[in-house]
Structures are given as structure tokens and as C-alpha cells.
Amino acid sequence: MRLCNLKAWLGVVAVLFLLLHLAAAASFYFVYISDQRVITVQPISENELILNAINLGDDVWVIHPYDVLLQSGLKTGLGHVFRREEKGAPGSFYATQLIQPHQFAGFTVVGELFKDPDRAIFRSSSRFFFLQKVEKRDFDVLERQITEIDLKRESAEAALKEAGITRPFGNLVSYPDGETEALIGLFPDVGRPLSPRVIAKKDPKLLPGIPAGSEVEIQGLVSKNGELLDAKVRQGISPQADQHALAVVQNSWKFLPAIQDGEVVEATVTLKVKFVE
Question: In this structure, are residues 241 and 207 in contact, taking their beta carbons and an 8 Å threshold?
Fold first, then answer.
């Protein structure tokens, strides 16, 4: 069972996240637990992860999808937007969530991610939560304990102990610190506009008479739902090559929308489309 089965939050959202959990095949999970926060991260694909968060503190917690960073050696992956799971909700994505004190929330984070990271780091203001890597068999036990946390208890320490959680997981480091100084540049500044992201693409194949490495420049509007609208060739090679490149982008490229002031917005994007052999 997933964390979304938390007793105080049964309902449609719990069912949706349960299905996501059953469909995933992660070998490792990432966990942070203190008397203020519970955070779990489950990578499920090259572009998605499941983030669950419990606010055990007394202040409102502001969460953004780009607060989640995955690392594996020199490789890094960053969240970009939350994908909406609620039926009938406006828009496919959103970029800011408030978690009230003593409440739980679960999210699907979409971005330029990957499935098998060595570690997961969560940023909150000037604090960095280094999540502990946990094997699935151990996480299954811990997950059941987390679902038993009584969010109505005034004492978070007592609620954790009653649920069977007797030790912390992960580490909290406040900026500046030796390691966080290097990490700070990997996270976007809160409030800074983020451009649309291409999370999947296919390069067009070379056509007869087109030199290798030739490029077509395409411009379009990425909607709030990640759709490429009004795409047109700005700088082309030939009518045949231009239409081929445009068709490949429209049929096989996937986009995430731009973000400004914590909101998902429309934005113009200019793409360099290279022909390959």
C-alpha cells in the first residue's frame, strides 16, 4: 500500500496513488523523517516520480516540483511541474502546493528525471533535506508505520513513536554549507521564470540531398497543458525537409509548460531540430 492510504486521507486521491504505486517497479525509495517533516520519493520512470509529504510542524509548508533533485554521479535530474490527478480539475499541471500544519499530500512530479538515482535531495527555502536510500523490503515496513501516524496528535514525537518510528531518517542541512554551496546552483531560484521543457523527442531522419547535421528552426507556443500550438518553421532548408521536421516535432516531441511566479503559463519556444542519419 502507498502512503496515500493514510487513515485521515482516504478517498479518490488515495486510490489514484495506490494505482501508481502498483504500476511502479522501483527497487529503492528515498525517505526523510523528523518530528517536523516526512518526505518520501519514489522514482517511477525517466520523467516521473512520486513525492509524498507530511507536515508535522506548525507552519504552512510551500512545495514546488523543482524542489526535488535526483543525483547519480555527475548526472542530475530535476522536477518541473506537478501533474494533476483529480478528475475535472482545470489544467494538466500546476507548480505550487501549500501543505497546512499536520496534513499530508501526495504528488506526481514530472520533469527531466531518471529512474535509478543514487540519492534524492529536497530543498525548502535555505534548507536541504538529504533523503536516506531505502530498499523496497525495508520501505514496505516503514510505509506501514508512516500510514499509522496520527496527524491529530499535538506532539509529533509522540505520534511517530506510537506509529513505531523510533529513529530519524536522512539529514537536514541549512545553507550555507560546503556541500549545499555546490548544490544551490542546481536548483532554480524560487520565483525565477522557468522555460518550457522538452522531455521526449525524436530527431528527423536525413532526406536525400540534405547534408548531415542540417537544422530546421521551429517556433511555437507551449500551452499550459504542454501542447505545442501554432508551430511553424522560422528558418528552413527546403519545403520537403521543413515539413518533415515539423511533422516529427508535432507527432513525437513532448513538452512541459513554462512556470512564472509559481504558476503554469503559456510561453513561446524556439526549437533547433537536427536531421540525423
Answer: yes
**Rounded Cα–Cα distance for residues 221 and 266 (Å):** 7
Rounded to whole angstroms, how far apart are CA atoms 159 and 201? 47
For residue 255, count other CB atoms closer than 10 A to its CB.
22
Grid coordinates of 34:
523528523
Percent of the chain at pLDDT > 70 equals 91
pLDDT tens digits along 46-62 = 999 999 999 999 999 99
Residues 192, 185: contact at Cβ < 8 Å? no
Q: What is this structure's pTM?
A: 0.87
Cell (9 digits) for 21: 504505486
Report the DSSP beta bridge partners of residue 255. Answer: 198
